[in-house]
# Entry
Amino acid sequence: MGHVLMAVSGPSGVGKGTLVKTIIKRRDDVVESVSCTTRAPRDGEVNGKHYFFLSHEEFQRRIDEDDFLEYDEHFGNYYGTPKSFVRETLKTKSVIMEIDVVGSLNAKKVFPECVLVMIAPPSLEELKRRLIGRNTETIEQIENRLARLEYELSHSEVYDHVIINDDFETALAEMSRILDEHAREE
Ligand code: ADP
Ligand code: 5GP
# Structure
């Protein structure tokens, strides 16, 4: 079986993080790529585990050094995937990246074999409930993130797979099956 590079996208609050973390807990052949970002850490977020938290200057320096597989700006902050980590890890394990639509398309340009997966909510109402329930953003930030939903979902045709995260275990099993399917093709 080969190793797969999978990009997982979808609106904030849809459950991407929970799905990816659970897969990684249950499968020792899969790891998550840790992105760099210029946004401030949320409560409980650890540098080097959830993200590498960089200053704008440091992030710019890494862009100039061509250190990112892809990077993009969201809500006034930069987010990027370090290239060297992905290349090294793929030698022994599959890698999941949690990145947005633009980042996924850029990653596919560099790694054409990258599998693009979109996680979609069962409904807008349910997405709002999850975002409010998570309690990590202000109402204004939630509105900003919901406004981006239409854009993200309107690109669903560029994805290799769309998973509706309604029942969590069903969505998880689907993600795991997709990893196996593409690993067999390698
Ligand atoms: P994202 O990483 O996409 O921003 P999170 O993984 O933080 O989203 O999930 C947002 C919230 O929704 C969390 O509180 C999480 O526990 C919850 N959640 C995730 N998947 C489901 C699901 N299938 N059904 C109900 N709640 C869910
Ligand atoms: P958050 O601030 O909620 O952690 O992430 C905001 C957005 O940034 C999400 O849509 C997430 O998918 C995206 N993101 C996180 N890491 C990266 C990355 O490395 N590259 C790109 N392009 N987007 C990312």
